[in-house]
Amino acid sequence: MATEGSSGPLIQIVGAGIAGTAMAHGLLLHGRSTHDLRVVDERPSPPLEGAGIQLSPNAIHALAALGLSAPPNACRPEAIEVLQQRSGREQRLARLSLLDFETRFGAPLLTCRRAALQSHLLEALADRGLTIDWGHQASIEAEPTGDLAVKATSPWRIMATGVAAAPRRALGLAPLAEPSGVALRGWIPAAEGEPRIQLWLGAGGHAVSYPLDDGRTHLVVCAADEPAARRVLEHLPSRCADFTPLGTWPLTDPRHIATEADYQHPDWPGMVWIGDAAHPMLPHLAQGAAMALEDAAVLAPHLAHSGLGQSAALRHVLARRAARVARVQRDARSNGRIFRLGGLAGWARNWALQMAGPHLMVRPWLYGNRPSG
Ligand SMILES: Cc1cc2nc3c(=O)[nH]c(=O)nc-3n(C[C@H](O)[C@H](O)[C@H](O)COP(=O)(O)OP(=O)(O)OC[C@H]3O[C@@H](n4cnc5c(N)ncnc54)[C@H](O)[C@@H]3O)c2cc1C
After folding, report:
1. Which member of 116, 143, 294, 315 has the greatest number of CB atoms within 10 A?
2. Pocket of ligand 1 (CB under 6 A)
3. Please, how many CA atoms are within 13 Å of residue 260, restricted to the half-sphere of its CB?
4. C-beta of residue 107 within 8 angstroms of C-beta of residue 62
5. 114 CA to middle of ligand 1, Å?
6. What is the distance in A from the centroid of ligand 1 to the CA of 39?
Protein backbone atom coordinates (compact mmCIF):
# COMPACT_ATOMS: atom_id res chain seq x y z
CA MET A 1 0.00 0.00 0.00
CA ALA A 2 1.34 3.40 -0.92
CA THR A 3 1.72 6.13 1.67
CA GLU A 4 1.76 9.85 1.27
CA GLY A 5 4.56 11.86 -0.16
CA SER A 6 5.51 15.33 0.93
CA SER A 7 3.85 17.39 -1.74
CA GLY A 8 0.58 17.16 -3.48
CA PRO A 9 -2.21 18.85 -5.34
CA LEU A 10 -4.55 21.48 -4.05
CA ILE A 11 -7.50 19.33 -3.06
CA GLN A 12 -7.34 15.81 -1.77
CA ILE A 13 -10.48 13.71 -1.62
CA VAL A 14 -10.02 10.84 0.82
CA GLY A 15 -12.34 7.95 -0.09
CA ALA A 16 -13.51 7.05 -3.60
CA GLY A 17 -16.88 5.63 -2.60
CA ILE A 18 -20.12 7.27 -3.64
CA ALA A 19 -19.58 10.60 -1.86
CA GLY A 20 -15.93 11.03 -2.86
CA THR A 21 -16.37 10.25 -6.55
CA ALA A 22 -19.50 12.39 -6.70
CA MET A 23 -17.61 15.29 -5.13
CA ALA A 24 -14.83 14.91 -7.69
CA HIS A 25 -17.46 15.24 -10.43
CA GLY A 26 -18.88 18.34 -8.77
CA LEU A 27 -15.50 20.04 -8.42
CA LEU A 28 -14.58 19.31 -12.04
CA LEU A 29 -17.96 20.49 -13.24
CA HIS A 30 -17.54 23.75 -11.33
CA GLY A 31 -14.20 24.68 -12.79
CA ARG A 32 -11.51 22.75 -10.93
CA SER A 33 -9.07 20.95 -13.18
CA THR A 34 -7.87 17.36 -12.84
CA HIS A 35 -4.48 18.80 -11.80
CA ASP A 36 -6.14 20.37 -8.77
CA LEU A 37 -7.55 17.09 -7.54
CA ARG A 38 -6.25 13.91 -6.06
CA VAL A 39 -8.70 11.18 -5.08
CA VAL A 40 -7.33 8.35 -2.94
CA ASP A 41 -8.89 5.21 -1.55
CA GLU A 42 -7.39 2.60 0.72
CA ARG A 43 -9.01 -0.27 -1.14
CA PRO A 44 -6.70 -1.87 -3.69
CA SER A 45 -9.30 -1.57 -6.47
CA PRO A 46 -12.93 -0.53 -6.99
CA PRO A 47 -15.10 -2.77 -4.83
CA LEU A 48 -17.53 -5.10 -6.53
CA GLU A 49 -19.11 -6.30 -3.31
CA GLY A 50 -22.16 -4.63 -1.87
CA ALA A 51 -25.74 -5.29 -2.64
CA GLY A 52 -28.39 -2.93 -3.89
CA ILE A 53 -29.04 0.78 -3.67
CA GLN A 54 -32.28 2.68 -4.18
CA LEU A 55 -32.04 5.93 -6.11
CA SER A 56 -35.04 8.03 -5.15
CA PRO A 57 -35.97 11.08 -7.28
CA ASN A 58 -33.82 13.41 -5.14
CA ALA A 59 -30.79 11.19 -5.85
CA ILE A 60 -31.50 11.36 -9.59
CA HIS A 61 -31.72 15.17 -9.30
CA ALA A 62 -28.38 15.22 -7.47
CA LEU A 63 -26.80 13.11 -10.22
CA ALA A 64 -28.19 15.50 -12.83
CA ALA A 65 -26.74 18.48 -10.91
CA LEU A 66 -23.36 16.72 -11.13
CA GLY A 67 -23.78 16.39 -14.89
CA LEU A 68 -24.56 12.69 -14.65
CA SER A 69 -27.34 10.37 -15.71
CA ALA A 70 -28.61 7.40 -13.71
CA PRO A 71 -26.62 4.14 -14.07
CA PRO A 72 -27.60 2.65 -17.43
CA ASN A 73 -28.75 -0.72 -16.11
CA ALA A 74 -30.87 0.59 -13.23
CA CYS A 75 -34.33 -0.97 -12.76
CA ARG A 76 -37.52 0.98 -12.47
CA PRO A 77 -39.90 -0.65 -9.97
CA GLU A 78 -43.56 0.18 -10.56
CA ALA A 79 -44.79 -0.01 -6.99
CA ILE A 80 -43.90 -0.42 -3.34
CA GLU A 81 -45.88 -3.08 -1.50
CA VAL A 82 -45.99 -3.41 2.27
CA LEU A 83 -46.73 -6.94 3.42
CA GLN A 84 -47.12 -8.97 6.53
CA GLN A 85 -46.82 -12.71 6.91
CA ARG A 86 -49.66 -14.00 9.10
CA SER A 87 -50.51 -17.62 9.85
CA GLY A 88 -48.58 -18.71 6.79
CA ARG A 89 -50.41 -16.23 4.54
CA GLU A 90 -49.14 -13.06 2.96
CA GLN A 91 -51.31 -10.06 3.74
CA ARG A 92 -50.91 -6.83 1.77
CA LEU A 93 -51.16 -3.79 4.03
CA ALA A 94 -50.49 -1.04 1.50
CA ARG A 95 -49.44 -0.45 -2.09
CA LEU A 96 -47.90 2.72 -3.46
CA SER A 97 -47.70 3.16 -7.22
CA LEU A 98 -44.39 4.65 -8.33
CA LEU A 99 -45.58 5.31 -11.87
CA ASP A 100 -46.45 8.93 -11.19
CA PHE A 101 -43.19 9.75 -9.35
CA GLU A 102 -41.75 11.34 -12.45
CA THR A 103 -44.72 13.68 -12.75
CA ARG A 104 -44.82 14.46 -9.04
CA PHE A 105 -41.12 14.72 -8.27
CA GLY A 106 -39.50 15.23 -11.66
CA ALA A 107 -37.63 11.90 -11.68
CA PRO A 108 -38.38 8.19 -11.17
CA LEU A 109 -37.30 5.95 -8.31
CA LEU A 110 -34.68 3.47 -9.55
CA THR A 111 -32.83 0.50 -8.06
CA CYS A 112 -29.38 -0.79 -8.94
CA ARG A 113 -26.40 -2.61 -7.50
CA ARG A 114 -24.11 -0.43 -5.46
CA ALA A 115 -21.25 -1.60 -7.69
CA ALA A 116 -23.16 -0.40 -10.77
CA LEU A 117 -23.53 3.09 -9.29
CA GLN A 118 -19.88 3.14 -8.24
CA SER A 119 -18.69 1.96 -11.70
CA HIS A 120 -20.91 4.53 -13.37
CA LEU A 121 -19.34 7.33 -11.30
CA LEU A 122 -15.81 6.01 -11.88
CA GLU A 123 -16.22 5.57 -15.63
CA ALA A 124 -17.59 9.09 -15.97
CA LEU A 125 -14.62 10.39 -13.95
CA ALA A 126 -12.25 8.57 -16.30
CA ASP A 127 -14.08 10.25 -19.19
CA ARG A 128 -13.38 13.58 -17.47
CA GLY A 129 -9.71 12.64 -17.30
CA LEU A 130 -9.42 11.81 -13.60
CA THR A 131 -8.00 8.55 -12.28
CA ILE A 132 -8.22 7.30 -8.72
CA ASP A 133 -5.26 6.40 -6.55
CA TRP A 134 -6.36 3.00 -5.29
CA GLY A 135 -4.48 1.29 -2.48
CA HIS A 136 -3.58 4.58 -0.89
CA GLN A 137 -4.47 5.11 2.74
CA ALA A 138 -4.43 8.76 3.72
CA SER A 139 -2.29 9.22 6.79
CA ILE A 140 -3.94 11.37 9.37
CA GLU A 141 -1.65 11.37 12.34
CA ALA A 142 -1.01 12.91 15.71
CA GLU A 143 2.09 15.09 15.85
CA PRO A 144 4.86 13.77 18.15
CA THR A 145 4.35 16.80 20.39
CA GLY A 146 0.98 15.40 21.35
CA ASP A 147 -0.89 18.06 19.40
CA LEU A 148 -3.15 16.42 16.93
CA ALA A 149 -2.52 17.68 13.45
CA VAL A 150 -3.14 16.44 9.99
CA LYS A 151 -0.05 15.39 8.16
CA ALA A 152 -1.46 17.05 5.12
CA THR A 153 -0.09 17.07 1.63
CA SER A 154 -2.91 19.29 0.45
CA PRO A 155 -4.04 22.71 1.56
CA TRP A 156 -7.39 21.11 2.25
CA ARG A 157 -9.11 17.80 2.28
CA ILE A 158 -12.52 16.39 1.66
CA MET A 159 -13.08 13.42 3.92
CA ALA A 160 -15.38 10.92 2.23
CA THR A 161 -14.27 7.95 4.30
CA GLY A 162 -17.68 6.39 4.97
CA VAL A 163 -18.42 5.00 8.42
CA ALA A 164 -14.74 4.16 9.10
CA ALA A 165 -13.89 5.37 12.62
CA ALA A 166 -10.10 5.54 12.12
CA PRO A 167 -9.81 8.98 10.45
CA ARG A 168 -11.85 10.66 13.18
CA ARG A 169 -10.03 8.76 15.92
CA ALA A 170 -6.69 9.95 14.52
CA LEU A 171 -7.87 13.53 15.05
CA GLY A 172 -9.13 12.87 18.55
CA LEU A 173 -12.76 13.07 17.43
CA ALA A 174 -15.38 10.65 18.73
CA PRO A 175 -16.90 8.25 16.21
CA LEU A 176 -20.22 9.38 14.78
CA ALA A 177 -21.77 5.93 14.47
CA GLU A 178 -22.28 2.85 16.56
CA PRO A 179 -23.16 -0.71 15.55
CA SER A 180 -26.88 -1.39 15.27
CA GLY A 181 -27.57 -4.92 14.09
CA VAL A 182 -26.97 -6.49 10.73
CA ALA A 183 -28.46 -6.75 7.28
CA LEU A 184 -28.48 -10.28 5.93
CA ARG A 185 -28.46 -10.00 2.15
CA GLY A 186 -29.13 -12.39 -0.65
CA TRP A 187 -31.04 -13.22 -3.79
CA ILE A 188 -34.54 -14.60 -4.03
CA PRO A 189 -36.41 -15.28 -7.29
CA ALA A 190 -38.25 -12.29 -8.72
CA ALA A 191 -41.91 -11.85 -7.75
CA GLU A 192 -44.35 -12.58 -10.54
CA GLY A 193 -46.03 -9.61 -12.16
CA GLU A 194 -44.90 -6.00 -12.12
CA PRO A 195 -41.34 -5.22 -10.96
CA ARG A 196 -41.81 -3.90 -7.42
CA ILE A 197 -40.21 -3.17 -4.10
CA GLN A 198 -41.62 -5.35 -1.34
CA LEU A 199 -41.33 -4.59 2.34
CA TRP A 200 -42.24 -7.30 4.86
CA LEU A 201 -42.91 -6.15 8.39
CA GLY A 202 -42.26 -8.41 11.36
CA ALA A 203 -41.71 -8.24 15.08
CA GLY A 204 -37.95 -7.98 15.68
CA GLY A 205 -36.90 -7.59 12.06
CA HIS A 206 -38.05 -6.67 8.59
CA ALA A 207 -37.11 -7.49 5.00
CA VAL A 208 -36.98 -5.55 1.75
CA SER A 209 -36.71 -6.95 -1.74
CA TYR A 210 -36.35 -5.17 -5.04
CA PRO A 211 -35.46 -5.96 -8.63
CA LEU A 212 -31.92 -5.48 -9.85
CA ASP A 213 -30.15 -5.51 -13.21
CA ASP A 214 -30.97 -8.90 -14.58
CA GLY A 215 -34.47 -9.18 -13.16
CA ARG A 216 -33.54 -11.38 -10.22
CA THR A 217 -34.83 -9.99 -6.98
CA HIS A 218 -32.49 -8.94 -4.26
CA LEU A 219 -33.54 -9.34 -0.64
CA VAL A 220 -32.22 -7.58 2.44
CA VAL A 221 -33.26 -8.67 5.91
CA CYS A 222 -32.52 -6.25 8.72
CA ALA A 223 -32.47 -7.45 12.30
CA ALA A 224 -30.58 -7.20 15.57
CA ASP A 225 -28.27 -10.11 14.80
CA GLU A 226 -27.83 -12.85 12.25
CA PRO A 227 -29.91 -15.53 14.05
CA ALA A 228 -32.77 -13.01 14.34
CA ALA A 229 -32.44 -12.14 10.65
CA ARG A 230 -32.64 -15.85 9.75
CA ARG A 231 -35.78 -16.22 11.88
CA VAL A 232 -37.38 -13.34 9.92
CA LEU A 233 -36.42 -15.12 6.70
CA GLU A 234 -38.16 -18.32 7.82
CA HIS A 235 -41.44 -16.43 8.12
CA LEU A 236 -41.30 -14.97 4.66
CA PRO A 237 -42.97 -16.43 1.54
CA SER A 238 -41.91 -19.63 -0.15
CA ARG A 239 -39.72 -17.64 -2.58
CA CYS A 240 -37.32 -17.25 0.35
CA ALA A 241 -36.69 -20.99 0.41
CA ASP A 242 -34.44 -20.25 -2.59
CA PHE A 243 -32.48 -17.60 -0.70
CA THR A 244 -28.91 -17.36 -2.01
CA PRO A 245 -26.90 -15.54 0.66
CA LEU A 246 -24.60 -12.63 -0.13
CA GLY A 247 -23.40 -12.36 3.45
CA THR A 248 -24.12 -9.90 6.20
CA TRP A 249 -23.59 -6.15 6.26
CA PRO A 250 -23.11 -4.38 9.62
CA LEU A 251 -25.58 -1.57 10.23
CA THR A 252 -24.62 1.63 12.01
CA ASP A 253 -26.79 4.15 13.78
CA PRO A 254 -25.70 7.76 14.31
CA ARG A 255 -24.63 8.55 17.89
CA HIS A 256 -26.09 11.98 17.48
CA ILE A 257 -28.11 13.69 14.81
CA ALA A 258 -25.94 15.61 12.35
CA THR A 259 -24.87 19.18 12.96
CA GLU A 260 -22.85 21.69 10.94
CA ALA A 261 -19.75 20.70 13.00
CA ASP A 262 -19.96 17.15 11.63
CA TYR A 263 -19.35 18.60 8.16
CA GLN A 264 -16.58 20.98 9.24
CA HIS A 265 -15.20 20.60 12.73
CA PRO A 266 -14.16 23.96 14.24
CA ASP A 267 -10.78 22.50 15.30
CA TRP A 268 -10.07 21.21 11.77
CA PRO A 269 -11.26 23.92 9.38
CA GLY A 270 -9.08 22.54 6.58
CA MET A 271 -11.36 19.55 6.19
CA VAL A 272 -14.90 19.02 5.08
CA TRP A 273 -16.54 15.65 5.81
CA ILE A 274 -19.20 14.37 3.46
CA GLY A 275 -21.44 11.32 3.00
CA ASP A 276 -21.48 8.69 5.73
CA ALA A 277 -18.33 10.25 7.19
CA ALA A 278 -20.43 13.30 8.19
CA HIS A 279 -23.81 11.67 8.76
CA PRO A 280 -23.98 7.89 9.08
CA MET A 281 -27.53 6.63 8.91
CA LEU A 282 -29.56 3.46 9.11
CA PRO A 283 -30.69 2.14 5.73
CA HIS A 284 -34.42 2.04 6.59
CA LEU A 285 -35.21 5.05 4.43
CA ALA A 286 -32.80 3.99 1.66
CA GLN A 287 -31.08 7.40 1.63
CA GLY A 288 -27.38 6.73 2.34
CA ALA A 289 -26.25 7.04 -1.26
CA ALA A 290 -28.79 9.77 -2.02
CA MET A 291 -27.47 11.98 0.80
CA ALA A 292 -23.87 11.39 -0.33
CA LEU A 293 -24.81 12.48 -3.88
CA GLU A 294 -26.70 15.50 -2.56
CA ASP A 295 -23.72 16.55 -0.41
CA ALA A 296 -21.56 16.64 -3.50
CA ALA A 297 -24.12 18.42 -5.64
CA VAL A 298 -24.80 21.10 -3.02
CA LEU A 299 -21.28 21.65 -1.66
CA ALA A 300 -19.16 21.35 -4.81
CA PRO A 301 -20.10 24.76 -6.30
CA HIS A 302 -19.09 26.49 -3.03
CA LEU A 303 -15.95 24.46 -2.46
CA ALA A 304 -14.80 24.79 -6.06
CA HIS A 305 -15.03 28.56 -6.00
CA SER A 306 -14.34 29.54 -2.40
CA GLY A 307 -12.40 26.63 -0.89
CA LEU A 308 -12.85 25.66 2.72
CA GLY A 309 -12.38 29.06 4.30
CA GLN A 310 -14.94 29.45 7.07
CA SER A 311 -17.00 31.99 5.23
CA ALA A 312 -20.52 32.86 6.27
CA ALA A 313 -21.72 31.54 2.91
CA LEU A 314 -20.18 28.10 3.48
CA ARG A 315 -21.45 27.97 7.06
CA HIS A 316 -24.92 28.73 5.80
CA VAL A 317 -24.78 25.92 3.22
CA LEU A 318 -23.41 23.44 5.76
CA ALA A 319 -26.08 24.35 8.31
CA ARG A 320 -28.81 23.78 5.71
CA ARG A 321 -27.29 20.45 4.69
CA ALA A 322 -27.04 19.36 8.33
CA ALA A 323 -30.69 20.22 8.96
CA ARG A 324 -31.79 18.14 5.97
CA VAL A 325 -29.66 15.08 6.71
CA ALA A 326 -30.67 15.25 10.38
CA ARG A 327 -34.29 14.88 9.34
CA VAL A 328 -33.37 11.92 7.13
CA GLN A 329 -31.38 10.28 9.96
CA ARG A 330 -34.35 10.64 12.32
CA ASP A 331 -36.85 9.29 9.81
CA ALA A 332 -34.60 6.33 8.93
CA ARG A 333 -34.31 5.43 12.59
CA SER A 334 -38.02 5.77 13.26
CA ASN A 335 -38.84 3.71 10.13
CA GLY A 336 -36.73 0.88 11.56
CA ARG A 337 -38.66 1.00 14.84
CA ILE A 338 -42.03 1.12 13.11
CA PHE A 339 -41.19 -1.73 10.71
CA ARG A 340 -40.45 -4.02 13.67
CA LEU A 341 -43.36 -3.29 15.98
CA GLY A 342 -45.24 -6.28 17.33
CA GLY A 343 -48.37 -6.79 19.46
CA LEU A 344 -50.86 -3.98 19.85
CA ALA A 345 -48.47 -1.36 18.50
CA GLY A 346 -47.95 -3.50 15.38
CA TRP A 347 -51.70 -3.83 14.96
CA ALA A 348 -52.13 -0.03 15.20
CA ARG A 349 -49.37 0.45 12.59
CA ASN A 350 -51.07 -1.99 10.23
CA TRP A 351 -54.40 -0.25 10.66
CA ALA A 352 -52.83 3.15 9.89
CA LEU A 353 -51.10 1.70 6.83
CA GLN A 354 -54.30 0.16 5.52
CA MET A 355 -56.19 3.42 6.02
CA ALA A 356 -53.63 5.88 4.68
CA GLY A 357 -50.82 3.72 3.27
CA PRO A 358 -49.59 5.59 0.20
CA HIS A 359 -49.74 8.96 1.97
CA LEU A 360 -47.67 7.68 4.87
CA MET A 361 -45.03 6.29 2.53
CA VAL A 362 -44.35 9.41 0.44
CA ARG A 363 -42.20 12.28 1.66
CA PRO A 364 -42.44 15.17 -0.80
CA TRP A 365 -39.86 17.24 1.18
CA LEU A 366 -37.37 14.43 0.61
CA TYR A 367 -38.11 13.15 -2.89
CA GLY A 368 -38.93 16.51 -4.50
CA ASN A 369 -35.68 18.18 -3.44
CA ARG A 370 -33.34 19.54 -6.12
CA PRO A 371 -29.82 20.57 -5.07
CA SER A 372 -30.23 23.97 -6.67
CA GLY A 373 -33.59 24.61 -4.98
C1 LIG B 1 -17.69 -2.00 -0.61
C2 LIG B 1 -18.91 -1.31 -0.11
C3 LIG B 1 -20.16 -1.96 -0.22
C4 LIG B 1 -21.32 -1.36 0.26
N5 LIG B 1 -22.52 -2.02 0.13
C6 LIG B 1 -23.65 -1.44 0.57
C7 LIG B 1 -24.91 -2.08 0.43
O8 LIG B 1 -25.00 -3.19 -0.06
N9 LIG B 1 -26.03 -1.45 0.87
C10 LIG B 1 -25.96 -0.20 1.44
O11 LIG B 1 -27.00 0.34 1.84
N12 LIG B 1 -24.78 0.44 1.58
C13 LIG B 1 -23.64 -0.14 1.18
N14 LIG B 1 -22.43 0.52 1.33
C15 LIG B 1 -22.42 1.85 1.97
C16 LIG B 1 -22.92 2.92 1.00
O17 LIG B 1 -22.12 2.95 -0.15
C18 LIG B 1 -22.87 4.23 1.74
O19 LIG B 1 -23.68 4.14 2.89
C20 LIG B 1 -23.41 5.40 0.96
O21 LIG B 1 -23.37 5.21 -0.42
C22 LIG B 1 -22.61 6.67 1.31
O23 LIG B 1 -21.38 6.62 0.61
P24 LIG B 1 -19.98 7.14 1.16
O25 LIG B 1 -19.17 7.48 -0.03
O26 LIG B 1 -20.20 8.16 2.21
O27 LIG B 1 -19.32 5.89 1.89
P28 LIG B 1 -18.74 4.57 1.23
O29 LIG B 1 -19.50 4.24 0.00
O30 LIG B 1 -18.67 3.57 2.33
O31 LIG B 1 -17.24 4.96 0.76
C32 LIG B 1 -16.19 5.28 1.68
C33 LIG B 1 -14.85 5.02 0.98
O34 LIG B 1 -13.79 5.57 1.78
C35 LIG B 1 -12.68 4.69 1.73
N36 LIG B 1 -11.82 4.98 2.91
C37 LIG B 1 -12.15 4.86 4.22
N38 LIG B 1 -11.13 5.25 5.00
C39 LIG B 1 -10.11 5.62 4.17
C40 LIG B 1 -8.77 6.13 4.39
N41 LIG B 1 -8.27 6.36 5.61
N42 LIG B 1 -8.01 6.40 3.30
C43 LIG B 1 -8.48 6.18 2.04
N44 LIG B 1 -9.75 5.71 1.78
C45 LIG B 1 -10.55 5.44 2.84
C46 LIG B 1 -13.33 3.31 1.70
O47 LIG B 1 -12.46 2.33 1.19
C48 LIG B 1 -14.55 3.54 0.81
O49 LIG B 1 -14.28 3.27 -0.56
C50 LIG B 1 -21.25 -0.06 0.87
C51 LIG B 1 -20.01 0.59 0.98
C52 LIG B 1 -18.84 -0.02 0.48
C53 LIG B 1 -17.51 0.72 0.60
Report:
1. 294
2. 14-20, 40-43, 47, 49-51, 114, 137-138, 160-162, 164, 166-167, 249, 275-277, 283, 288-289, 292
3. 12
4. no
5. 10
6. 14
Fill in the DSSP letter of residue 70: -
Residue whose CA is at the smallest distance from ligand 1 atom 4? 50
- What is the reported pTM? 0.93
Closest ligand 1 atom number to CA of residue 43:
47
228 C-alpha to center of ligand 1: Å?
Answer: 25
Mutation probe of ligand 1 site: the residue of 18, 63, 253, 285 with most atoms within 8 A of C-beta: 18
Calculate how far, in angstroms, residue 277's C-alpha sits from the geometric centre of ligand 1: 9
Residue 285: strand, helix, or coil: helix
Please give the distance, rounded to the nearest whole angstrom, from the Cα atom of residue 295 to the centre of ligand 1. 15
- The answer to whether 262 and 322 have CB atoms below 8 angstroms apart is yes
Distances (CA, A) of 79 to 160, 325, 339: 33, 25, 18
SS3 at position 229: helix
The residue length of the chain stands at 373
